[in-house]
């Protein structure tokens, strides 16, 4: 059997029963693929079910408001995916009468859809012979063919794309593409690959040359930046607070948060008192205290947020205040959502 035939044979025996594998509906496939970018299947599956329950069709998603979409997405991270998801649903409904493009070339023009996602939808739904390249596929190809070109370099992207095209199974592209991703996830796993009972072990160069744990090669990540967030949790006598939508194109765009003072380093209470007026206008503050003595370090892909929550009590009524008990209705970063759950008024 050829490389691709062995992959398909393995897949038919070992594939997991995942909800988006029981359909060829491009809406469901697109939804699952966007959710599983940068996300493990175990984490993404409950969100997939939530979205399908709340938005059974692309029309339902298009007609939802952004705040509702972001709230359902809360905790899944990389929120630009949710905003792109919503925008693309509107485009499919308004420009294509609710029908997704049926080709790779048409799909890749959609917002938030890159090479991998376009290839996945085109092959899973429409049998177009386009190879998929995700982290699992890169790993299988790099190990089996002994390729040491960095997978996240421009040279690597081109090389692996051509290699993937050469070895794909045109006759059964749907099972092959799903199979090689599943194979990389279960059989040719990152840390504990099952090489002893692998159907590809007789031809695997990495196994033969004892380089399984050296491949694939990846260029070093961008340096992680440390940021210092000080959230000002205002509380008036009615237990109302200030909760505002985050604007701009940085992290957490259009999510809600408390007034934020970002500083160059960790600050103490005296430092905070000198900076409060830069962030909020308060006629009086009856009490200020720090909720968490140790900063909560929230890790994102290229930045670590060293976060403190400062509680500011005031007798003055907060303008446009929102009752603290109602904050869980608003979409917020998981860092803030966790604080809201834990804080006792």
TrEMBL record:
Gene Ontology molecular-function annotations: 4 iron, 4 sulfur cluster binding; 8-oxo-7,8-dihydroguanine DNA N-glycosylase activity; adenine/guanine mispair binding; metal ion binding; oxidized purine DNA binding; purine-specific mismatch base pair DNA N-glycosylase activity
GO terms under biological process: base-excision repair; mismatch repair
Domain HhH-GPD: 35-186
Entry's cofactor comment: Binds 1 [4Fe-4S] cluster.
UniProt-listed InterPro entries: A/G_AdeGlyc_MutY, DNA_glycosylase, Endouclease-III_FeS-bd_BS, HhH-GPD_domain, HhH_base_excis_C, HhH_motif, MIG/MutY, MutY_C
Cofactor requirements of the protein: [4Fe-4S] cluster
PROSITE patterns in UniProt: ENDONUCLEASE_III_1
Pfam families associated with the record: HHH, HhH-GPD, NUDIX_4
Its EC number(s): 3.2.2.31
Keyword match Heme: no
Protein name, per record: Adenine DNA glycosylase
Organism the protein comes from: Saonia flava
């Amino acid at each position: 059997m050829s490389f691709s035939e062995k992959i398909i044979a393995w897949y038919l025996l070992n594939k997991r029963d995942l909800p988006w594998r029981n359909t060829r509906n491009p809406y469901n496939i697109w939804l699952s693929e966007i959710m599983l970018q940068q996300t493990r299947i175990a984490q993404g599956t409950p969100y997939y079910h939530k979205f399908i329950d709340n938005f059974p069709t692309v029309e339902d998603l298009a007609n939802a408001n952004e705040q509702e979409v972001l709230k359902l997405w809360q905790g899944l991270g990389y929120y630009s995916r949710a905003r792109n998801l919503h925008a693309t649903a509107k485009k499919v409904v308004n420009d294509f009468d609710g029908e997704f493009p049926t080709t790779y070339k048409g799909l890749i023009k959609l917002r938030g859809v890159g090479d991998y996602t376009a290839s996945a939808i085109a092959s899973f739904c429409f049998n177009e012979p386009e190879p998929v390249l995700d982290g699992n596929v890169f790993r299988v190809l790099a190990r089996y063919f002994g390729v040491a070109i960095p997978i996240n370099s421009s040279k690597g992207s081109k090389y692996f794309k051509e290699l993937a095209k050469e070895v794909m199974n045109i006759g059964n592209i749907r099972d092959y593409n799903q199979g090689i991703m599943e194979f990389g996830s279960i059989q040719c796993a990152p840390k504990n690959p099952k090489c002893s009972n692998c159907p590809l072990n007789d031809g695997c160069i990495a196994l033969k040359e004892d380089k399984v744990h050296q491949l694939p090669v990846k260029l070093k990540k961008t340096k992680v930046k440390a940021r210092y967030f000080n959230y000002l949790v205002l509380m008036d006598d009615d237990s109302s607070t200030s909760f505002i939508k985050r604007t701009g194109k940085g992290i957490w765009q259009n999510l809600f948060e408390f007034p934020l003072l970002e500083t160059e380093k960790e600050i103490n209470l005296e430092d905070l008192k000198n900076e409060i007026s830069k962030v909020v206008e308060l006629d009086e503050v009856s009490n200020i205290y720090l909720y968490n003595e140790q900063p909560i370090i929230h890790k994102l892909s290229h930045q670590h947020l060293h976060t403190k929550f400062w509680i500011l009590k005031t007798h003055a009524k907060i303008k446009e205040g929102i009752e603290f008990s109602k904050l869980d209705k608003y979409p917020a970063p998981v860092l803030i959502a966790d604080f809201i759950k834990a804080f006792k008024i």
